[in-house]
Amino acid sequence: MSFFPTLSQMKSYTSYLSQYIKNINLSTQQSYRPARELGEITQKIGGLFLPAHAFTPHKSLFGSCGDSLKAVFSDFAPFVKVLELGLSSDSQMADCISELHRLTFVSNSDAHSLATIGREYNIFELAEPTFKAVKEALFKENGRLVANFGLDPKLGKYHRSFCEDCQQTLVDIDWLGCCPFCSGKKIVKGVYDRLLEISDSESFSSAPERPPYYYQIPLSFLPGVGPKTIKKLISYFGTEMEVLHRAGLDELTQVVGREIAELIDKARHGQLDISPGGGGIYGKVTAT
Ligand SMILES: [Zn+2]
Questions:
Q1: Which domains does the chain show, CATH number per domain?
Q2: Confidence band (pLDDT; 50, 70, 90) for 287?
Q3: pTM to 2 decimals?
Q4: CA of 178 to the centre of ligand 1 (A)
């Protein structure tokens, strides 16, 4: 992922990319350039480069390209200073790869739909809200990233491995190349399982000085909370973040009743059971 502070820098990058992309005006186009080259060009133009959704299967840095930064970026590896975690992982999981301890982790929303903007976000401490200040904070030069907010990774679409033949999520099962239920071989490796495979530490635990990572369960994931209830909550409290993190239990009860208020409170305190996602299907809150 490449970010630029001005449109003219963005245009320079676009003109480089358009040599390798059929239609530069469409989203999700592929360029087949080496990752190192994308990083170098972004840096040369004055932008900010970071691998995004770093562990998801199919096309990501660790999900399908290689086992280390060096393997994928060669000489550019030391210049990779920031990494985006994706919905299916969190800081503790990513820190099981020790070469990532020096990196800043960001938890960013995609902009595929307006409703999901803010599903993941970061809090920064900055002298001023500018591109330069954000970049310096991410590079640990000045200012800092204070906290990450994101989905509980179990809710992510690629948390655990998934058999595409029989549509089963393979949780805590040794599948060794084929599905234990149907012997199918079309298995999409989950982020959790991929990290266990390439981890060089014993357990999932955050590196020292890693900012806290707060889980949030969006209202739409809560069983029995439909669009009408969500609309009512947001129109009363102003934003979904206010509902998820700040609204008091009594006030929530007044607006939507005891049952839903308690559900929101349990989500806030990590007290809900979650059946993990996999193969492109979100995890689900199963028991309340
Ligand atoms: Zn199967």
A1: 2-155 (no CATH), 161-189 (no CATH), 218-273 (1.10.150)
A2: low
A3: 0.92
A4: 8
